[in-house]
Design goal:
Blueprint: E1 6-8, E2 14-16, H1 21-27, H2 38-58, H3 60-63, E3 68-72, E4 78-80, H4 81-97, E5 100-105, E6 112-113, E7 121-129, E8 140-148, H5 159-162, E9 169-177, E10 181-186, E11 191-197, E12 202-207, E13 218-220, H6 233-242, E14 246-247, H7 253-263, E15 266-269, E16 280-281, H8 282-295, E17 299-301, E18 318-319, E19 321-324, H9 326-343
Parallel strand pairs: 5-7, 13-14, 13-15
Antiparallel strand pairs: 1-2, 3-4, 5-6, 7-8, 8-9, 9-10, 10-11, 11-12, 15-19, 16-18, 17-19
Helix pairs in contact: 2-4, 6-9
Binding site for substrate: 129-132, 222, 249, 267-269, 279
Binding site for Mg(2+) 1: 106, 126, 128
Keywords: Carbohydrate metabolism, Cytoplasm, Hydrolase, Magnesium, Metal-binding
Length: 345
């Protein structure tokens, strides 16, 4: 039986597996008649920076750019050399492209105002997630969110341009630097994945219209923090074990999320005694992955509410995160709710 190499998107239009990212973006421009090509160019800028970071990551051991940089970021986390390099690469690509007016980065204390008042978009980005895994050759990634500014074009950026809930994203994605490098993104019309072909220097469509399984048999959580988990998480994990789920935890958010998105499973980073408001950042980690998850038929919650409904109150705001197959997220939230009800009895 022949396999059909053409996959339709939600509009019924078919795209060939093997289509280049650049061509795919051009073909999809009609989804954004208001954008006049700027969003498409912005996605190309991100893809270009990802290619450069991929190159740097692959030669990290040879070029002595692995390991700690010797400074900490605004979260108090030790910066790795590649954190700094990746931040510079994405900052340059986004600032020179001309479509962006402001950038929120994990590696920057404050909003980076590009003084480009004609820019239509705000980008929130974690340039290199899981970078501490580089020295042991484990997959790492980049996570990004794109928002349309709220204030009029030509005016200085304001707080309202930055502090938008995830539901306002016009695009989001991640790059996974692993055994192969993949760029996965959504513009609100499904999720598509592209694999990087190094010999040609191009991303090619390899995973069209990704749909997450509604359930799964994988749970991903740092079990070393079990004694500090919020109420309800332990009973849910115990249920996963009783059902003979596989425990798979890489410690790299993008890699764990990507595996569960394709195979079915749930990733949990709940509130703990040390981090009662969670550890993952809302603006440039949770929001992007939640948007992708929902577009693929999965779910994302902080244990009480939909991630995309949370209105941010601070730039580096943290949040608990339960994300993955819809049925598993619902069940985890049920356990949290039961624990809350029992605590009030």
């Amino acid at each position: 039986m022949k396999i059909n190499p053409y996959q339709p998107d939600q509009s019924g239009m078919a795209y060939s597996v093997g289509t280049t990212l650049d061509r795919f973006i051009k073909l999809k421009q009609s989804d954004f008649p208001f954008a006049s090509g700027e969003l498409s160019q912005l996605l190309r800028d991100i893809a270009l920076a990802a290619k450069i970071v991929n190159r740097e990551t692959n030669r990290a051991g040879l070029a002595n750019i692995g390991g700690a940089f010797g400074q900490t970021n605004v979260q108090g986390e030790e910066q790795q050399k590649l954190d700094v390099i990746a931040n510079i690469r994405f900052m340059r690509a986004l600032s020179k492209g001309g479509e962006v007016c402001a950038i929120v980065s994990e590696e920057e204390d404050a909003v980076v105002d590009l003084q480009n008042n004609s820019g239509k978009y705000v980008v929130a980005i974690d340039p290199l997630d899981g970078s501490s895994n580089i020295d042991v050759n484990i997959s790492i990634g980049t996570i990004f969110s794109i928002y349309r500014r709220k204030t009029p074009i030509g005016s200085p950026i304001q707080q309202e341009d930055i502090m938008q809930p995830g539901s306002e994203q016009v695009a989001a994605g991640y790059v996974l630097y692993g055994s192969s490098t993949m760029l996965v993104y959504t513009t609100g019309f499904g999720v598509n994945g592209f694999t990087y072909e190094t010999s040609l220097g191009e991303f090619f469509l390899s995973h069209p219209q990704i749909q997450a399984p509604t359930s799964g048999t994988i749970y991903s959580i740092n079990e070393g923090l079990e004694k500090d988990w919020q109420d309800g998480i332990k009973s849910y994990v115990d249920q996963c074990k009783e059902n003979r789920f596989a425990a798979r935890y890489i410690g790299s958010l993008v890699a764990d999320f990507h595996r569960n998105l394709l195979k079915g499973g749930i990733y949990l980073y709940p509130a703990t005694k040390k981090n009662p408001t969670g550890k993952l950042r809302l603006l440039y980690e949770a929001n992007a992955l939640a948007f992708i998850a929902e577009q693929a038929g999965a779910k994302a919650s902080d244990g009480k509410r939909r991630i995309l409904d949370i209105v941010p109150e601070s730039l580096h705001q943290r949040t608990p995160l339960l994300i993955g197959s819809a049925e598993l997220v619902d069940e985890a939230m049920h356990h949290i709710q039961l624990a809350k009800e029992q605590a009030t009895i």
